[in-house]
Amino acid sequence: MIDDQLPDRVRVREVGPRDGFQNEPERIATADKIRLIEQLAGAGYKRLEVASFVRPDVIPQLDDAIDVLHGLDVPGDVELTVLVPNERGLQTALEHRETFHDVVIFLSASETHNRKNVNRPVDDSLATLERMAPVIKDAGLRCSAVIATAFGCPYEGHVDPARVVELAGRLAAAGCDELGFGDTTGMANPRQVRAFFTRALEALPGVELTAHFHNTRGQGLANCLAALEAGITSFESSFGELGGCPVPPGATGNVASEDLISMFHEMGVDTGVDLDALLAAAREVQSVLGRRLTSHVLVAGPIAWGERAGV
Amino acid sequence: MIDDQLPDRVRVREVGPRDGFQNEPERIATADKIRLIEQLAGAGYKRLEVASFVRPDVIPQLDDAIDVLHGLDVPGDVELTVLVPNERGLQTALEHRETFHDVVIFLSASETHNRKNVNRPVDDSLATLERMAPVIKDAGLRCSAVIATAFGCPYEGHVDPARVVELAGRLAAAGCDELGFGDTTGMANPRQVRAFFTRALEALPGVELTAHFHNTRGQGLANCLAALEAGITSFESSFGELGGCPVPPGATGNVASEDLISMFHEMGVDTGVDLDALLAAAREVQSVLGRRLTSHVLVAGPIAWGERAGV
Predict the structure, then answer these.
(1) Which of A171, A179, B75, B102 is least surrounded, with the fewest CB atoms within 10 Å of its CB?
(2) Where does the record place the Pyruvate carboxyltransferase domain (chains A, B) (predicted)?
């Protein structure tokens, strides 16, 4: 069956503890966050996005970032990522630099989305990120940058892939180790994804490119597949299908980690994550949130047969 | 963007009026069935599976097959398919042969699944289908055969692709015009799908091969993508994500037509189906059933921006 050319192994960053918890209407207790993050690390994740240094009056759900970071006890080979929205957030984060390994900074490829999100033109955001990346690197930390609306904008529609690659090149030149491309409102399709990442991999050698898809129109896993086939080996997803600012209410946001991990494993592509242990973490967050989550593998169970399948 | 080799156009058969309606706990009124089928034809479908000649005591939801078929008024270029489970059902169907165009017969690739489904060994079912296919052809009708559990069995696990291709070859030799491959319980993965259809297309020239995927573990569209990339141009799906015998309860069954059509169109692959008209039909069946359906594009709306997206 291995007549194609897929990698044996990919890296998956779990973003639920930041992106997911941020989107919950109720703030999750700090002790619950710590327990869930440690459970995810125990499931085998080596990359976890766990906190954000944003203004607590804007995102109260993450106002305990410092307590979470100082409270965590995870294996030494687990890379913890924090998100910072601006230079002020970065300064606060750097006061706790011993508690994490990687800082993610972000902008939108689309002018209108960037203005609505951070009230600035894209070029202003880019200039700020170009100042922040060296500061992060000088602090001995890894630096990631995410380009949101990389595959389409809910306000403008088409986003020029040449512009996305140009922004990525500027960020790489500023010192970023990793560049993430976010399909923020689920507008990407697999043909577009394959073409984009083929181009981006050629244009951006020496920097890690990460795919971050949403399942808004059900194409999340198909887009991950297209990215994998184009040569991408770094992905992000969210356990329990949490987060991703789903619009409209009730829609799906981030690709569910358990669905993505299941697909990769069934394809013979290892992730290092134990699916059963991940499902246990997803059931645990379901219990903490007090509502039923609807990722496919959580509902249907992993692919199995005979006694395990209960048939 | 068109540097890959995808077809400009594919055929999609809508199976909701048979597979979907059969799986509803309450029998849908005949007039509602007819109205919904005509609405789907109006949306541009040229292939609709609309009825089944099964025992009414076994599947009362479809006991009005004859009334539905005689009541339908669809354009002359719309191909209507009926499912028959056995020779007795075929005889009844042929009494109404002027009301449809295509008969679908079926077996399972897996021995245990076939025995549990129709209480016979696979070879017995195959012999029956080999008798039925010429009868269907002699009646001037098109003949399709579906091989269920073609990508995995919930009882046995792995299904040998060589056995599936062998069964398909026997059915093609018996006169079948089309061979469908069903991922009955959602066990397929894209790598397997690509390898299988590459092999099947080589082994079975001159017969139409159709992909029928379930979204049980969320991989439905990714598997359709893999089939498309392997060269498959015929697909089946169900509007409103109806049907497909989802196991366990609450799980997803058939791939949702609106999600599949949306993906193909975004990729520049035409289906002949008007997505907005299809969504109207999905909303109509939602109203008939009195419950909310959860296909992604029905919930989130089609990919759009600006005024249309309401942002």
Answers:
(1) B75
(2) 10-279
pLDDT band at B194 (very low <50, low <70, confident <90, very high): very high
Asked if B295's CB is within 8 angstroms of A218's CB, the reply is: yes
Q: What fold does the segment set A11-300 form as a domain?
A: TIM Barrel (3.20.20)
Q: Taking the CA of residue B120 as centre, how many other CA atoms within 13 Å lie in the half-sphere pointing to its CB?
A: 14
pLDDT at A307 > cutoff 80: no
Nearest Cα of chain A lies from the Cα of B298 at a distance, in angstroms, of 9
* Long-range pairs, B19-22, Cβ under 8 A, ≥24: B19/B49, B19/B238, B19/B242, B19/B243, B19/B244, B19/B254, B20/B238, B20/B239, B20/B240, B20/B242, B20/B243, B20/B244, B20/B254, B20/B285, B21/B61, B21/B62, B21/B242, B21/B243, B22/B52, B22/B59, B22/B61, B22/B62, B22/B243
Give dist(CA B220, CA B237) in Å, integer: 10
A224 is catalytic: no
Asked if the C-beta of A230 comes within 8 angstroms of chain B's C-beta atoms, the answer is no
In angstroms, the separation between the Cα of residue B138 and the nearest Cα of chain A is: 40
Nearest CB among A222, A267, A300 relative to B216 is that of A300
- Chain B touched by A302 (CB under 8 Å): yes
Residues with Cβ within 8 Å of A95's Cβ and at least 6 positions away in sequence, in order, are none
Q: What does the block give as tokens for B42?
A: 């109006």
Interface residue B162 vs chain A (CB under 8 A): no
Question: pLDDT tens digits, residue range B223-242?
Answer: 999 999 999 999 999 999 99
**Whats the size of chain A, residue-wise?**
311
B297 inside 8 A of chain A by CB: yes
Whether A251 sits inside 8 A of B296 (CB atoms) is yes
User: Which residue reads 């009868």 in tokens?
Assistant: B135
Q: Looking at the predicted structure, is the pLDDT value of residue B1 above 60?
A: no
pLDDT on residue B251:
87
Which residues are CB-contacts of A266 (< 8 A; sequence separation ≥ 6)?
A303, B189, B191, B192, B219
Over the range B9-38, which residues count as b (16 or more CB within 10 Å of their CB) and which as e?
ebbbbbbbbbbbbbbeeebbeeebbbbbbb
Q: Is A86 helix (H, G, I), strand (E, B) or coil?
A: coil
B184 touches chain A (CB under 8 A): no
Compute the distance between CA of residue A185 and CA of residue A153 in angstroms, rounded to an integer. 7
Count the Cβ atoms, other than its own, within 10 Å of residue A181: 29
- Would you call B190 and A263 a contact, using CB atoms and an 8 Å cutoff? yes
Residue B192 to residue A1, Cβ atoms within 8 A: yes
- Among A288, A287, A260, smallest CA distance to A275 is for A260
Inter-chain contact A221–B216, Cβ cutoff 8 Å? Answer: no
- Tens of pLDDT along A165-194? 999 999 999 999 999 999 999 999 999 999
- Please tell me if residue A7 touches chain B, with a CB cutoff of 8 Å: no
Indicate yes or no: CB of A157 within 8 angstroms of CB of B306. Answer: yes
Sequence spans of domains, chain B: 11-300
Chain B positions touching A152 (Cβ under 8 A) are: 303, 305
Interface predicted TM-score (ipTM) = 0.96
